[in-house]
Amino acid sequence: MTNVPQDIRQRVETLRSTLEDHNHFYYVLDDPRIPDAEYDRMFRELQKLEADYPGLASEQSPTRRVGSSADTSFHSVTHRLPMLSLDNAFSEDELRDFDRRVRERLGVDASVEYVCEPKLDGLAVSLHYEHGLLTRAATRGDGYTGEDITANIRTIPSVPLKLRGSGYPDLVEVRGEVYMPRAGFEKLNARLAEQGEKTFVNPRNAAAGSLRQKKSTVTAKRPLELCAYSMAVTDESVLPETHWDSLQQVREWGFRINPEMRKAEGVESCLEAYSALMLKRDSLPYEIDGIVFKVNRLDFQQALGFVSRAPRWAIAHKFPAQEELTVIEGVEFQVGRTGAVTPVARLKPVFVGGVTVSNATLHNMDEIRRLDAHIGDTVFIRRAGDVIPQVVKVVPDKRPDNAATVEMPEHCPVCGSDIVQIEGEAVARCSGGLYCPAQRKEAIRHYASRKAMDIEGLGDRLIEVLVDEGMVNTVADLYRLTKFQIASLERMGDKSATNLIAAIDRSREPALWRFLYALGIREVGEATAKALASYFGTLEAISGADEDTLQAVPDVGPIVAGHIRSFFDQPHNQETLSELKAAGVSWQEEEVRSIEEAPLNGQTWVLTGTLATLTRDQAKEKLEQLGAKVAGSVSRKTACVVAGESAGSKLAKAEQLGLNVLDEQGLLDLFQEHGLQN
Ligand code: JCF
Q1: Does the structure show a pLDDT above 80 at 602?
Q2: What residues pair up with 27 in beta bridges, in sequence order?
Q3: How far apart are CA 265 and CA 287, in angstroms?
Q4: In this structure, is the dihedral angle defined by the CA atoms of residues 280, 281, 285 and 290, taken in order, positive or negative?
Q5: In CATH, what number is assigned to the domain containing residue 381?
Q6: Cβ of residue 579 lying under 6 Å from some atom of ligand 1
Q7: Considering 170, 313, 378, 582, which has the largest number of Cβ atoms within 10 A of its Cβ?
Q8: Is 117 a pocket residue for ligand 1 (Cβ < 6 Å)?
Q9: Closest Cα partner for 627 from 640, 645, 615?
Q10: CB 225 within 8 A of CB 258
Q11: Global confidence as pTM
Q12: What residue numbers bound the domain in which 429 lies?
């Protein structure tokens, strides 16, 4: 301690207070004042100084917010003043009754002023500050004793480790709600799901689970926030006259208080605040389950006191619940416009999040397995914000004996084609792409698009009408349209009808790759279509190739090969192909290019320097697809050197030997020229 140089001591102090200032600007005021990188630099400098001078260690250092691997104690602590809960008003009348009782007890005829604030859906905590330093944080527990969670609370960036300003009493207790904002909750669940871990049902459970962690290093990685809602002090002389002003004080000490908080004069004004907040509910970045009304004057609060566990001066008015229990009565399978088959739970209708819900998506079979959902199960349905209703949890105890497992059908419920699920993909798909009515509009839109058959004038709106009027069911029907038919449609003149017919006619002799791409086979993009066309030469060859043969084509792996195979295996797709032929569409055959004929066959290429748009491996792979060998060093036999940014000695040598040199753009042009995707 003693032999730390004064300037180091000073620097550490400056870094700590500057970092805490920026924490405050960022997490409490939502007003970042420096770039993250600048913050990180100062943070690392402080970490280094603290490592070099262990004598300077401090619990209040911002570096401690990353948590520690020591177990959090969770021993019980007694609250200095009990942590009260809130009574609930379940209707406007109950709220009016509450206001009447308040005024009767206080003996006031006039209206009483209330503070209205959103009721956050999180966990109440109590924070003790002694001489301005955070010394103890506890859960509410039963209201009288809670658990010590100081180590975990310290990791929450919006919790001041030290009160800001000066003039605070020796002992300050601040109470507030720890919660997890929606965005952080979604991210956390996505991360947990990716790691194959259990996800949380809602932000409240996520906040509770995060605070209950044994290791505060885990809590530190959870996006928790604190919003203060009340304070108690030892030195009563600092107490203002109203709850509102006491919260302004708390804010000056460095806490976040709810920005939606407002004053309301009288109960009718409280009801207005309730309706206004309800309208705002879905757009708030965090979940709330109601609104809290508190008598503003502290002397009034004092006079009213409390009964059993709840104050007489406060009440919560709840919003409609966002989670309810109901029963899965059946599961249906819906086919989307791209062929994805989605299981949808048919529910016993339930009122949740303000609407009656009778369906909820189950996403895919993996999700059904994750939930272990059966038909007949009682489940938690959640509808928060404008998000579609979700099945979040099964109640296993309530499963009836006759509960049925959910099976993916083998055939598309819309067109009867095979449903296929390619290994490694969560989504099952109808393979009747060209035929399936569910996919009709999308299939036609894709077929006509610029990079596919390029049928000018056949836009989304027109496709919509043509299909809805029953004039076009499959792409083959396009070629049977008459000018008269088209001109009869609303907003289609004679001229546009003529133009459209001409555009359709122009698409009768497409290049093979265009036609192949236009078929809309899953995962067969432009580049893959080009590669397939030049490898096989004819549609018959592609349609007859087995999966192994297909995989000999550059860019085609097992998944793509699977999609190609299942597309051509569908009798309905074959029918549509025959119809296209019958309608006069004839795709051009392409010259088959064997490996010997690959454009760079027999050449050795060298890559040097860094490329901006692709990795060295990607460049190598593509060069190899074109038949080149890629070597590590330059020699007289090198056909060409590709020089990226800050190329060094290899480029110098190439120039010395007078070899061909290409820059990155030159390489991209070469790939483009040979139909390789960037
Ligand atoms: O946001 C909350 N969940 C919340 C809870 C807000 C408050 O003002 C509260 C509370 C619980 C008790 N006030 C009390 C007295």
Answers
A1: no
A2: none
A3: 26
A4: positive
A5: 2.40.50.140
A6: no
A7: 313
A8: yes
A9: 640
A10: no
A11: 0.74
A12: 409-592
